[in-house]
Amino acid sequence: MCCWRVNGVNKFVLVLLIACSSLSIGATAQTGLRGTGDLGVVIERASGQVLVIEHSNNTRLAEVDGLGDLSHASVVFSRDARYAYVFGRDGGLSKIDLLQAGISKRILQAGNSIGGAISQDGRLVAVSNYEPGGVRIFDAETLAPVADIPAEYAPGKFSKVVGLVDAPGNRFVFSLYDADQIWVADLSDPDKPAITHFNNIGRAPYDALITPDGRYYIAGLFGEPGLSLLDLWHPEQGPRRILEGYAKRDEQLPVYKMPHLEGWAVAGERAYIPAVGQHKVLVIDTRSWQQQQAIEVHGQPVFVMARPDGRQVWVNFAHPDNDTVQIIDVETATIIKTLKPGKAVLHMEFAPRGEKVWISVRDEDRVDVYDTDSLERIAELPAQKPSGIFFTDRAHRTGL
């Protein structure tokens, strides 16, 4: 008897058939136990559901529906990697039990949300909101409200919040798009959040990232060329601009889709960042935060992601070039392969050790799996308008 609970007979017949067909899941059926280290979820945005998958054998395990509007949805995981917290665009916050393949809890906490984060100790989940502008904090176990941080930057004026990440010390860091600010919220005492404001960081921060060591918070600027960098080891120094005017001499192109800085890549002492509105990936020296070079690519990059060993960087693109993925060899800074998976490649996710990568191909209703050594497709899975792919190893990584 398989241990997965059926929460919709038709959906889980597939679970039982696939799961019990493999040795590892067969063992699960016998013992009633299963780990979560090779699990993940795929967002099916059109139907408001997620696929629960495993990447050891590249299979679908279950579907969980009833999650509302999942356009631009993102996911973080509990520190035991059993639960996935899904942030919907409609303000929904859903806690999914991956082992039971069902919704443990779900709340509507705002009217328009853009992402979330989980604290270093795993006890708090934060959600960034467009409407009403601000960040709301919830208990990770119960989803009960803990704190409300309105992004009021002037009397009666509230900003959209973007670029929310977790940082060491149970802090959350985020940017105010309408106010040109970065805020750091210290939740060491959840009953008394301590908020630090940084003003005039640059025009219209649209997204942000944090380095894997949790030290540098970097906000991309939509209102001007460049980025704003805050050293969280020395916040008293304030943010500083980097890569100012990197595209001044380039033709200004319409921006078809804003790049996602969360998907930036670090390989050795270099960072690879998508250039807004340009057909380029910027290479930055992380010791000086100066640009080293720009690599010409097929279109406007959206996600620029490093294979976990740092040997390759994979890039997908905005419309009308979103049928393409290119692979950059880090040693030579050259493109070694151009793939054409199909229409609307939206996201990529590497297996924890990087031997394969999953790619969502929305308009083909398919998820592809590629071997990152041979660069050949080794599997494909049906999915309804798939977008984000999230594996549970994110549970143990800062900023994800």
Give a verbal description of the structure.
It is a single chain. It contains two helices and 34 strands. A hairpin with a 4-residue loop joins strand 28 and strand 29 (334-339). It has helices at residues 9-19, 23-31, and strands spanning 39-44, 49-54, 59-64, 74-77, 83-87, 92-97, 102-108, 112-118, 124-131, 134-139, 145-150, 152-154, 157-158, 161-167, 171-176, 181-186, 194-198, 205-210, 216-221, 227-231, 240-242, 265-267, 270-274, 280-285, 290-296, 301-306, 312-317, 325-329, 334-339, 345-350, 356-361, 366-371, 377-382, 386-391. The protein has 400 residues and is mainly β. The longest helix has 11 residues, at 9-19. Strands 3-2-1-34 form a four-stranded antiparallel sheet. A four-stranded antiparallel sheet has the order 4-5-6-7, with no helix packed on it. A four-stranded antiparallel sheet has the order 8-9-10-11, with no helix packed on it. The model is unreliable at 1-27 (pLDDT under 50).
